[in-house]
């Protein structure tokens, strides 16, 4: 049986005239409710069955971490979802206030552990804006490469575990094959496979190793073949399409009202991408497209990630061509540590080294915010400086936290299995939610 | 189901009310399309159409050409520099607010005007990106009041960003922006939880990140940090000093672990002995 025959059969089964009940008739009834009704659980139910509360999580494989959901159900249909977060809350924002600016780089990647480079980059960009630091060209280019590799890494986990939630085991192995190669690149550059902490205020921790650009090029070739495989195997899979199409539709006006950003917003048709709209790290000089879809359903959100692989690969290829030898740290000794060999000959270097390690630098008084685009949406660090060597206040704009609000909207009227689909395609990272 | 309104991807065919309520999405359109034209069913199985936003020319180039054109002409006829489309100074004046002197474009909003200002910004198409709670208790510079709440407002199409700053004293409540933007739900709950600012008109003002039995608001500057005994719900009690003493091996501590193996000294290290009655 060809795909076409299968699709025809499937649609015939949905036809009300063919004698079968159209699928999700119940759901369309629920969808007439307004956003207010959805968020407060006041939806008109067709069947007056007894309401049931179902607890999902916090230890549940398909909640992507420790998210607890209390789901009010009317038969098989979700009436209200109440997420309970905070199981991973470790008070990063308070910790930042008691660490020097340079030490903060250790904490930033631990929030969103799948796209760590986004938080790291956002943090150092904010501090650099405070300090007016000059980042060398090479450091910026390496940052762009790693930022995009991090996006690919995060989307690979999305493809793998997202479909694992839906019961498909194979994608996990396919996507994690590429994910491991991607992590090899991270390990080569800074020694860590996760929570890298490779960026520094004013540049990078150290230069990339010899042969690393070639490793990246080889990975990109592997990745391109991988994306083709994912598209044929998973995105075009009729079983997956049937579970994802039309499920959890978020219209653009609702998405903006709920503060959605990133691929979830672009899947609803709003072409908002900080790489294009608020360029940082020289993204305005790269040639890439912002991919959007108008469907706003789970399938669109899934496809959005697959299409973004291609755009990231394009950006990395251009960045690799621009990579020229040069320094990777701001030459200002008040910001960057002096090279090790200088400590043996220069007293001044020793003093700078001592001051930076024991106390750190003192940015001027001020408040800054630099928006960046992570794999999940807008990441920004609002940093308040009082002139001391530690930030006075750091507020993380975590995209997963805000995006999670869409769950309460999108799940109403869906079946319980669709809730898993919607949660998987909204793609929250609980470290990012709880911080 | 109306086959006229469920016209594929063309959202213009859907009445406004249906778009607002989230109807007329992909599911229904694919059904109605299948009813109308079953021959196209296989086409719908493909991924939906990609809309690619073309890369706009970098703004740097525009400036270069503008100044290049101005070189040939007399300086008197030089056109005024084009206004930055992201500049919000005009918008702040239009709203009748004063601008703060921070690096980010910030407007000072009196707390009683916040809701009204937010509503007029929402009408202009702005969205709420973030809400920041700030405690200036130990700040080195004088500040008008102890707390500030900043709303990070952003326009998703013309990319203007504006921060609304409201100064608050301890115990002073603030109008919730939930009736204006639904995004304020979690954001205000977080500020309430960590900073202790109350929002009037928020339908569900509960803790969101810290445990239910934690008293106080951790991001306040007077929240004690470390060395505080932590009381858990059923009377369990963690004394940091005793805990640390247990880890360093000075006392038996909470766990009974004496830390000998970790400390690794030579003569006073005893061989591990199983306590009576098995491991605790």
In a few lines, what is going on in this structure?
The complex is a heterodimer of chains A (435) and B (280). With 435 residues, chain A is mostly helical.
Highlighted features:
heterodimer; A: 435 residues; mainly alpha; Cytochrome-c3 Hydrogenase, chain B; three-stranded antiparallel sheet; 20 helices; 9 strands; globular; B: 280 residues; alpha/beta; five-stranded mixed sheet; two-stranded parallel ribbon; 15% strand; NADH_UbQ_OxRdtase_49kDa_CS (chain A); quinone binding (chain A); quinone (chain A)
* Sheet having the most strands of chain A: 3 strands, antiparallel
Number of helices of chain B: 9
User: Uncertain runs of chain B with pLDDT below 50, 5 residues or more?
Assistant: 1-50, 53-76, 255-269
Oligomeric state, counting identical vs distinct chains: heterodimer
Name given to the CATH homologous superfamily of the largest domain in chain B: NADH:ubiquinone oxidoreductase Nqo5 subunit
**What general outline of chain B do the C-alpha atoms trace?**
elongated
Under CATH, the topology of the largest domain in chain B is which? Beta Polymerase, domain 2
CATH topology of chain A: Cytochrome-c3 Hydrogenase, chain B
- Give the strand order of the largest sheet of chain B, numbering strands 1, 2, ... along the chain: 2-3-6-5-4
Helical content band of chain B: 25-40%
Task: Report the CATH C-level class of the largest domain in chain B.
Answer: Alpha Beta
Major sheet strand order of chain A: 1-2-3
Q: Level of helix content of chain A? A: 40-55%
Biased composition (Basic and acidic residues) (chain A): 1-17, 24-38
EC number (chain A): 7.1.1.-
Region (Disordered) (chain A): 1-38
Keywords (chain A): Cell membrane, Membrane, NAD, Quinone, Translocase, Transport, Ubiquinone
């Amino acid at each position: 049986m060809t795909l076409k025959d299968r699709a025809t059969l499937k649609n015939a089964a949905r036809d009300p005239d063919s004698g079968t009940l159209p699928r999700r008739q119940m759901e369309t009834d629920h969808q007439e409710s307004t956003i207010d009704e959805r968020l407060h659980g006041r939806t008109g139910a067709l069947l007056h069955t007894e309401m049931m509360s179902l607890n999902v999580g916090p230890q549940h494989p398909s909640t992507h971490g420790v998210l607890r959901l209390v789901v009010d159900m009317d038969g098989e249909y979700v009436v209200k979802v109440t997420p309970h977060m905070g199981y991973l809350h470790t008070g990063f924002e308070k910790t930042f206030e008691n660490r020097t600016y340079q030490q903060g780089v250790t904490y930033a990647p631990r929030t969103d552990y799948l796209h760590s480079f986004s938080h790291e980059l956002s943090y150092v960009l904010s501090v650099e804006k405070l300090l007016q630091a000059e980042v060398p060209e090479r450091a910026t280019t390496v940052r762009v490469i790693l930022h995009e590799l991090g996006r690919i890494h995060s989307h690979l986990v999305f493809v793998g575990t997202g479909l694992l939630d839906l019961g498909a085991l194979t994608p996990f192995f396919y996507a994690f094959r590429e994910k491991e190669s991607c992590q090899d690149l991270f390990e080569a550059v800074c020694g860590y496979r996760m929570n890298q902490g490779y960026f520094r205020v004013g540049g990078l921790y150290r230069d990339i190793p010899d042969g690393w650009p070639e490793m990246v090029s080889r990975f990109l070739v592997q990745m391109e073949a991988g994306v083709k495989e994912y598209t044929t195997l998973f995105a075009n899979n009729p079983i997956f399409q049937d579970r994802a199409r039309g499920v959890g539709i978020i219209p653009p006006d609702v998405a903006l009202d709920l503060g959605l950003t990133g691929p979830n917003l672009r899947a609803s048709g709003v072409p908002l991408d900080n790489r294009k709209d608020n360029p940082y790290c020289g993204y305005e000089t790269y040639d890439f497209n912002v991919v959007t879809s108008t469907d706003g359903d789970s399938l669109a959100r899934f496809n959005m990630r697959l299409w973004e692989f291609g755009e990231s690969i394009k950006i990395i290829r251009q960045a690799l061509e621009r990579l020229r030898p040069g320094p990777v740290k701001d030459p200002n000794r008040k910001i960057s540590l002096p090279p090790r060999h200088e400590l043996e000959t220069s007293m001044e270097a020793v003093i700078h080294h001592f001051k930076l390690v024991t106390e750190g630098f003192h940015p001027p008084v001020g408040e800054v915010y630099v928006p960046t685009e992570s794999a999940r949406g807008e990441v920004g660090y609002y940093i308040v400086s009082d002139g001391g060597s530690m930030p006075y206040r750091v507020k993380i704009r975590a995209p997963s936290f805000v995006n999670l609000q869409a769950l309460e909207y999108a799940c109403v009227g869906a079946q319980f299995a669709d809730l898993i689909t919607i949660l998987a395609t909204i793609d929250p990272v609980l470290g990012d939610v709880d911080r | 189901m109306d086959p006229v309104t469920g016209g594929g991807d063309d959202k213009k065919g859907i009445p406004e009310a249906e778009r607002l309520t989230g109807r007329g999405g992909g599911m229904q359109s694919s059904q109605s399309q299948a009813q109308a034209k079953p021959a196209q069913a296989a086409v719908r199985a493909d991924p939906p159409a990609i809309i690619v936003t073309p890369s706009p020319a970098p703004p740097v180039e525009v400036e270069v050409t503008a100044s290049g054109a101005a070189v040939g002409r007399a300086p008197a006829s030089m056109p005024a520099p084009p206004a930055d489309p992201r500049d919000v100074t005009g918008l702040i004046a239009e709203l009748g607010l004063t601008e703060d002197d921070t690096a980010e474009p910030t407007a000072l909003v009196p707390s009683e005007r916040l809701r009204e200002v937010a509503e007029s910004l929402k009408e202009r198409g702005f969205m709420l990106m973030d809400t920041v709670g700030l405690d200036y208790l130990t700040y080195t510079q004088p500040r008008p009041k102890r707390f500030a709440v900043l709303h990070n407002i952003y326009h998703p199409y013309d990319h203007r960003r504006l921060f609304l700053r409201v100064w608050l004293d301890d115990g002073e409540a603030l109008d919730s922006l939930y009736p204006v933007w639904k995004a304020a739900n979690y954001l205000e709950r977080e500020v309430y939880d960590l900073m202790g600012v109350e929002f009037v008109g928020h339908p569900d003002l509960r803790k969101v990140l810290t445990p239910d039995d934690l008293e106080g608001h951790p991001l306040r500057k007077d929240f004690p940090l470390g060395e505080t005994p932590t009381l858990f719900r059923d009377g369990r009690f963690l004394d940091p000093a005793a805990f640390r003493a247990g880890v360093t091996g000075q006392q038996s501590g909470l766990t009974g672990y004496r830390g000998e193996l970790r400390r690794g000294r030579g003569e006073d290290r005893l061989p591990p002995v199983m306590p009576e009655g098995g491991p605790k």
